[in-house]
Design brief:
Chain A: It holds the Pfam family BPD_transp_1. The structure holds 2 protein chains of 2 kinds. The two termini of chain A are 43 Å apart. By secondary structure, chain A is an all-alpha fold. The radius of gyration of chain A is 26 Å and the shape is globular. Helix content of chain A is 74%, strand content 3%. Chain A has 15 helices and 2 strands. Chain B is mainly alpha-helical. Chain B folds into 2 domains: 159 residues, MetI-like fold, CATH 1.10.3720; 30 residues. The chains are: A mainly alpha, B mainly alpha. Chains A and B meet through helix 3, helix 4, helix 5, helix 6 and helix 9 of A and helix 2, helix 4, helix 5, helix 6 and helix 7 of B.
Amino acid sequence: MTVTEAPPAPPAEPVVHRTPVRRRLVPYWLLLPGILWLLVFFALPLVYQASTSVQTGSLEKGFEVTWHVATYWDALTEYWPQFLRSLLYAGTATVLCLLLGYPLAYLIAFRAGRWRNILLVLVIAPFFTSFLIRTLAWKTILADGGPVVEFLNAVHFLDVTSWLGMTEGERVLATPLAVVTGLTYNFLPFMILPLYTSLERIDPRLHEAAGDLYARPATVFRKVTLPLSMPGVVSGTLLTFIPASGDYVNAELLGSTDTRMIGNVIQSQFLRVLDYPTAAALSFILMAAVLVTVTVYIRRAGTEDLV
Amino acid sequence: MSWLRRNLVVVAGLLTLAYLIVPNIVVTVFSFNKPSGKFNYSWQQFSTDAWTDPCGVADMCASLGLSLQIALWATIGATVLGGMIAFALVRYRFRARSTVNSLIFLPMAMPEVVMAASLLTLFLNLGVELGFWTILIAHTMFCLSFVVVAVKARVMSMDPRLEEAARDLYAGPVQTFLRVTLPIAAPGIAAGAMLAFALSFDDFIITNFNSGSTVTFPMFVWGSAQRGTPVQINVIGTAMFVIAVLIVIAGQVVASRRKKTAGH
């Protein structure tokens, strides 16, 4: 009833005037528990890790902060191959995810019609099954002498990959190719979903307009679709590259000692060797490497409103 | 040939879909295998043994139960904490907003192994015993950000005038929240909660660092990759896939029904 009688006055105002301080504090009360949780269990651990990385000692005698920064240098000189390999594998997997994911995202966004939801379900469903079980399934798929490897051999694909140093002889398991295959597979949905979201926002009439202006399909894609989907490309590549660079599951299950990534090293230093300072330093170097790569990439890709 | 050129993107897209689905098919097929050794990597003989006795492996179903329990509590924790943050970020203007935003963004932008390792150094330094509680703390922490993003997306598209209208009709703040705000935000909260549940249930890396000797289901699978994989793992994998697909389909049906009734 009041609505019809009091037209212009904003109705929330009396409440604001009655308890101005309490109302101003509301967002802080809403934030407090969650932010506290993140500060204690996300930010504070990073501080502890920083302190651990400059400690020396042993598990028996205990560790002490001695500002032994040389740990970083030692870790880097000893494990640079694993660092390089991680960035290389993660980078290759990201490019493959983009090449494989773009057509599927495009298909779902523009060509699927009433199949759209079913296709989306098929992309998301693997999220809900254990990724370890699915990664182990690749052991079966890529088995030595299995149909997949036989086929790759028959079409001389393995000749090409072994020339590239991705495989060795007539097997795929325990080679870089197997690890990259697993990485690509595991992070593909993280590429497809942001790509789909940004493609879906494009007005299909823009395609028609470009066609009316005599642009060929390839030109339409290059000049209209691709540029407009760039936010999706950028967030997709980040969502793929960052987790892939720290992953050690694929390298462990599908690779060999020659394909160990930096995640494997951090894992074994922390949980098996129990050399906490080295492990902490490695973990920080990985974080720095990822941050630098990502920052440079974002600058070059030129997209500011991410995620 | 010209058909192929016109439909190249369809063919390529379907091939990618096949790449995504093939492992699930392999997992399903191998759940009906009768392996001859410890490992279930090569096809031997058809058998339904594993399906009739899914818990026949020592400790596997216990680990499954533990994972479900942790996922449930982590989901509740992350959804409550994350939902509150999302509301604060969308509905209020305050000074620390951009700082909060980056604190939310960082856990998603960091390799999991870094987070896992740093949390372990905290627990080691404080002398906390690793186990159920440390896993729960860790899972709640990394699920939080994802919930915030999911809920934020929904709350942002909500019309604040609906709440103003409720207040005009003399609804108190609690009543407004329960009867108006919460129902409209529900799909976003549900999406966030589902994501949190899936992330927690499936998490391996962070759990591996912070579980001590406690064995969750992913930890069990990881161990089995070294010791020998029972067929029952494939049974669970298949069941999870089927249940997930059914849930998603049910959600779609409910959503489209609602749309239809709203249209009338």
